[in-house]
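Why do we care about 3D structure at all? Because function follows from shape, and shape follows, mostly, from sequence. That is the central idea of this module. The next example makes it concrete: a single protein chain, its amino acid sequence, and then its structure expressed as C-alpha cells.
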Amino acid sequence: MFKIKESYKEKYFNTRRAIVVVVTLIIVLLMGAVYLGLISSKQMKEIIREDFNQQQLVLARYAASSMEHSLDYIQRELSLLNLSPSIQYLEKVSWARRMNITLSAAKEEGVVEIRFIDQSGKKAYIVDNRATPLIIHDNFTDTDYFKWALRKENKNRIYCCEINRASPQHPDELIMRLVIPTYEESVDEAHPVPTGRLAGMLIFTVDITYLVRNATQGIKMGKTGYAWVIDKRGIFLYHPQRAFIGEDAFKIREMKKPKISFAKINTIQKERMLEGKEGTGRYVSGWHRGIEIEMEKLIAYAPVYYHGDWSWSVAVVAPMSEVEGVIHSVYIRQFYIQGTLILAIILGCMYVIGFERRWANALEEEVKEKTKNLEEFLEKLEKSEKKYKTLVESAQDLIFTVDENGKFLSMNRSSAIFFKNSPDNLTGKNMYDLFAEESAKLQMGFIAQALKTGNNINVKYPVKVGNSDYWFSSNFVPLKDESGKIYAFLGISRDITERKNLEEEQIYNTEKLASLGKLTAGVVHELNQPIAVISGFADILLEKIEPGKNHEILETIERQSQNCKRIIESILGFARYPDKTDYSSDVNISLERVLAVVENILVAEKITLKKNITAELPEVRGDSGHLQQVFMNLIINAVAAMRGGGVLTVSTRLNSFGNKVEILFKDTGHGIKREYRDKVFNAFFTTKKRGEGTGLGLSVSYGIVSKYGGNINFETVAEEEDRERMGTTFIVTLPVLSSGDKQMSDKTQPQIN
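And the structure:
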C-alpha cells in the first residue's frame, strides 16, 4: 500500500513537475514570443517605413526628371525658334505663323505666350493661347532681361527671370520668363546674307504652376500621399492647398498652425532641400488632405536640375499612420497566431508558415500596386522622349551631329535615306567616306570656322555624293558643354538642288522674256509707220473714187488698218511701264484695257468672251498697272486651260457688305486636280510642259493682291470629277478705297517686291 501510494505520489509529483515545466516553458515561450514579436514589430516598422520612403524617393526623382525634361524641351524649342529667319528678320507674313507653330508644340509643357521685343525695346510682337497675333508699343528698356540681352557676352545664352505671380486676380498661378538674344544670322531667299546684328530678344512665358502640377498631381503614395515643390527661395511652386502656392514655406505653415513646432521640416528644407540634396526623413504637420490634426509624416525629396544647377526641390509626403496602420493590423494577427503555436506547436508552426506565405503574397501585391505609379511615370517619360525623337526623325532635312574631325556621331532617318544606308552603318564614318573629296574639304572648312568663331555658320554650297551633284543649304551649330567648350556640331542641311535648278532656269526664262519684250516693242513700233501710210493712202483714194465696189474695198482697207493701229496701241499701252504708282484704280477701266489686248488671242484660240461688268463700281486700293498684270496672268491661265476652245466669263461686282470689289474669271477648261489645289499659289509650281510656263504667274498675282489688302480664291471642278460642270473660277477680292486711304495715297506709295 505504502509503495503504491509512494508510486502514485511520485507520479503526481512527476506529473505536477511536468505540468510546471510545461507551463513554465509555455510562459517562457509566450514571453519570448511577445518579446521577439515586439522587437520584430519594431524592426519591421523601421524596414517598411524605410522601404515606403525609398519608394517615395523614387517618385520624387521621376517627378524631378519629368520637370527637367519639360524645362529642357522648352529651352530647345526656344533655341530652335530663335534660329528661324521669320523671327530674326521679323518677316511680316510669317512671324506670327511661326510663333503659333512653336506655341502649339510647347503649350503642353506650360508655355502660355511667345513674344519678340525689338532691339529698340519699344515694340513687342506677341502670340498667346488666343492665337491672335498682337503688336504692342511700350518701354521695356528698364527690365533686367532687356539689359541682360544687350550684352554681347550673353549671345546664345538663355536668361531665366525670377518666378512671380501671374496676376493679383490669380495669386495661385506662377510664371517664369525665358529670354534669349536674337541675332540676324540665318539665311533664306529674302535674306541671303545675314547681318549678324542684334535684332531683339525672344521670350517664352511659362506657367510654372501648370508645368509643376502636370509632373506632380498624379503622384499618390499610399492612400492619401501627395507631392509639393519649392524653389531656391523656399517659395511653394505647387501644393495641394492652393493658398500655399507662391507663399514662403517657412512662414505659411506657422501662420496656419502657430501652436505646432515645424522645426523638423524647416531644418529639412533649409539644410537639405535648399542645398539641392536628396534624401528621406520625418516631420510633424498639422493637416493632411483637409484633415487638420497634428500628425507625423514621412517625406522623400529630390532636386530639379536646370542649366546644370539645381533650381527647385520636389517632395513626396504621406502620413505615418498609413504605414503603421498596416503594420499594426498585421502584427495583431501574428500575436494570436504565436499564442496558438504555443498551445499546438506542430499545427501552429504549419499555420505560421502558411500565414507567412499569405502575408508575403499580400505584401507583394501591395508593392505591385504602389509601384504602378512608377510604371506610369516611366511610360510618360518614354512617350515624351519618343515625341522629341519623332520630331527629329520625321524632319525632311538632313539632321546630324559631327565632331571637329568630321566623324559623324548621329544621323536622322532623312540623312540615312539620302545616303541610301542605315543610321547605324553611317554613324562613325567620316566626311570623306560619304562625300567627294572637294565637298568634304568644303564642309570641314565650315566646321573649322564654327569652331574658331563659336558662332552658327549658314551657307549654301554644291556637294557631290558618288557621281551625283547636289546643292545644300546648311546650318552648322556649335554644341557646347557646361564649361562652354565645343564638343560637337549640329548640322541641319536641306537639299535645294531642284530649287537651284528652277532658279537658274527662271533667270534664263526671265532674260529671254525681257529680250523678247524689247524685240516685240520694237517691231510693234516699226509697224506703226507702214500702217499709217496704208491708212493715209486709203483715205486719199476714198476722196477721189466715187461710191461703188472699189470705194467699199478702200473703206475695208482703212477700217482694218485702223484696227491694226488700235491693237498696236493696246499692246504698247500694256507693256509700257507707268511713270508713277497709283494707290487707287478703277477696276472696270483696268479690266477693259487687258481685254482689248487679249481679244484677238481669244478669237484665235476659239474662246468666246462673255462680260458681266457692273457699272459705277467704287475705286479700289491698288495700282492700275499692277492689277492689269494680275488680270492678264489669270486670263492667260484660263486660255491655257481651254485648249481647243471654250467660254471665258469675266464679271465684276460689289460684295454684300459694300466694302470690297470682286472680279471673277470663269473658264470651261479641264479644272484643277485635287493633288494640285494646295500648291497653285506656290512659287515655281506649274503643270505646264517644260518651257511653256515659269510657275510664277499665280504666285506674283497673289503677292500683288495681298499687298493691297486683297485676296485671291478659286473654285474648281476637275475633268475627272464631273465633265458636265468642269472648269475653274478665280475670284480676285480688293478692298474699296476709303477716305483715309485717299489721304494716305497722297503721301505714301506701296512698293511691290
